[in-house]
Amino acid sequence: MGPSVGLVLLFYFIPVILTFLIAFTDMGRTLIWRFIGLDNFARLFGVGSRDPLIPRILLNTIVYTLGALPLTIVGGLLIAVLSMRMRPSAGLFFRSVFFIPRAIPPVVWGFLWAWSFEGTRYGLFNAILAALGLPTVQWLIRYPMIIVILANGFLGISLAMLVFSAAIATIPQELTRAAEVDGASEGQVIRYVILPMLKWPILTMTAWHLMSFLNSYVYIMLITGGGPYYATEVWSLYAYHAAFTQYRYGYGASLVVLLVVVNVVLFLIILKAFGMQRMLTRGKIEV
Amino acid sequence: MKVFLDRLSKYFGQVKAVDNLTLAIEDGEFVALLGPSGCGKTTTLLTIAGFYKPTAGFVLFDDKVVNELPPRERNIGMVFQSYALYPHMSVLDNITFPLRLKKVSRKERETKAKALASLLRIEDILERKPAEISGGQQQRVALARALIKEPGLLLLDEPLSNLDAKLRVTMRAEIKRLQKDLGITTILVTHDQVEAMTMADRIAVLETGKLQQVGPPEELYNSPANLFVAGFIGTPPMNFLAATLEKREGKFFITTERFCLPLPDSVTMKICQIPTPHDVIVGIRPENISIGQGEIRGEIYVVEPLGRDTLVSLHIGTEIIKVIAPPTFRASPGEQVQLTFSEEKVHLFDKETGKSLLV
Ligand SMILES: Nc1ncnc2c1ncn2[C@@H]1O[C@H](COP(=O)(O)OP(=O)(O)O)[C@@H](O)[C@H]1O
Ligand SMILES: [Mg+2]
User: Fold this and answer.
1) CATH class of domain segment(s) A61-232
2) Which residues in chain A are closer than 8 Å to B85, comparing Cβ atoms?
3) Is B12 touching ligand 1 by the criterion CB < 6 Å?
4) Could you say which of A172, A188, A192 has the minimum Cβ distance to residue B84?
């Protein structure tokens, strides 16, 4: 117990507390700092010397999250349900294909997308267009948001699909057979029996990926770097840029602190709205 | 609805789960598929329901081949062994689900559900979830759900095996009565011969996918076609003794090292074509043996009073047989007794083939 508590303090609580503290300073490249009270937050909320990029970043974050989240959940469900109703071998193959994004290193996944949508004729899709004698497209300039949503959505899909498939595998075969005898078509079996029984996994995955899309920026950084001209700069990436490319540690920390607050609030809302607390405390598995 | 299984086979790779099964079931009849675990009962039922395509042969409903018809179009009701109630729906929603799929109006659905619920005495639990009711109630709900669309055929897979012993006896009678009241063609799958005997109009006995015998309960009990059926039906089971069939001066006898039993004319009539001597297995039910006097000597092994009668195990030579004696019977282990077999109740089976020589 003793040493592990120390480790948790050292690597978990202290950085969190430090971040909170730095958010109230003007720490910069020199690491010399001075408490400036709520100045960083005032800037964020557009009071006094406001940050003109904030509305843009906020909108990007919302569009990105609202794009990638439904893609992940609906896509994951679709693949899980279809693959679990196929012949077992076909289903396994299908699931393996959609698991690839998780199985390869992030850098490779990011590069794959960046290369596929590269604007010169060396990009995959442009090479195809060129081979067909069609004009090439500046994908990453014209559709940057769609591309980062897809890249992250497919990653989300592979986890969601896995979780949903595992949940479907626990549904007793007699239940779906009963539904068929009762007169349900394939679609009705899915709608009336399988989906309702996936309620908890769907809620869990929704909460999980909501947080994940709000907080992670790695793939956006690898594919578009947040550009072109802030078109895909989301909140967490902006915080990263503020802290580690512009060395405005104090301001970056305040961006992160606000994100953490939003996370906590969203988490509480989800708990409340879906009665997930009941699920957590009762440990209830409906079978 | 009439059901006809025509040379039906279902293989899983090398396993012949159902092997060349032919069985005709009349409209309104209650038939039990009886056999030990793994003999292919569930596979037969699932093939009738349409979940499995026959490897060979045909399933006919009212003289029409339905091999290609998916389960939802077969107009069947089914109660699964686990009951398979939808856990996220209330009891009422479970029962009305088949009608909801048929787009029957809510009002009509609920009227029908309430009528069935009162028939099955579950009106008080309609708002609850399946997890909140007892096993016996779950089974009634499963029955109600199977019956609400008024199917032409009701399939029951081991419906009583998850209930406690007392409830099983009650539900046995209730299901039988319900089936007679509704007149719905019913196939019951069970490994419990008492269940099959008490509930069904006819029983089809299966072993390793093959039909052994089909007939009314009394027929299976009184004239089993082979050793398997004879041993499977009846508790305590029939006693078997190896013997030789002999013919002396125009009369048939069965002889063992221990005794020689003349056969009555009723039996002799059926076996007069058989060349003698012939190796046979003699079968005699525990209730067809009486202790007191007779040619056959035995030694008491153990006496088990059951209240209504007394079960006596005794040795004849090295073999153990069981006898049902009157409740007043007393004896101590090791005591020598004399026995009589009711000769007209003796069964004879060919030792080689196991087939009955009397049917
Ligand atoms: N889906 C299946 N795949 C492979 N073998 C099966 C399958 N279902 C049943 N079997 C085999 O077929 C035989 C009959 O099984 P089953 O019909 O379930 O027997 P019962 O219901 O009489 O206990 C068994 O040997 C069983 O192992
Ligand atoms: Mg079975």
Assistant:
1) mainly alpha
2) 178
3) yes
4) A172
Compute the Cα dihedral for B207, B213, B215, B219 and give only its sign.
Answer: negative
Spans of all domains in chain B: 3-232, 239-350
Helices vs. strands in chain A: H and E counts, helices first: 17, 0
pLDDT, tens only, A214-266: 888 888 888 887 778 888 888 888 888 877 887 778 788 888 888 888 888 98
The pocket of ion ligand 2, defined by CB under 5 A, consists of B 42
For residue A285, the CA-to-ligand 1 centroid distance in Å is: 29
Query: Which DSSP state fits B339?
Result: E
The superfamily CATH assigns to domain B3-232 is P-loop containing nucleotide triphosphate hydrolases (3.40.50.300)
Report which of residues A179 and A18 the model is more confident about: A179
Whether residues B80 and A178 touch (CB distance < 8 A) is answered with yes
The domain limits of chain A are: 61-232
Q: Which among B231, B235, B202 has a CA at the least distance from the CA of B219?
A: B202
Nearest atom, ligand 1, residue B189 CA: 21
Query: How close is the Cα of A287 to the center of ligand 1, in Å?
Result: 24
pTM over 0.90: no
CATH of domain B239-350: 2.40.50.140
- Tell me what the pLDDT averaged over chain B comes to: 92
- For A154-166, how does the pLDDT look when each residue is reduced to its tens digit (9 = 90+)? 989 999 999 999 9
Residue A181: its chain B contacts at CB < 8 A? 49, 71-72, 74, 76-78, 146
Q: Which residues contact A60 (CB under 8 A, 6 or more apart)?
A: A145, A230, A231, A232, A233, A234, A235
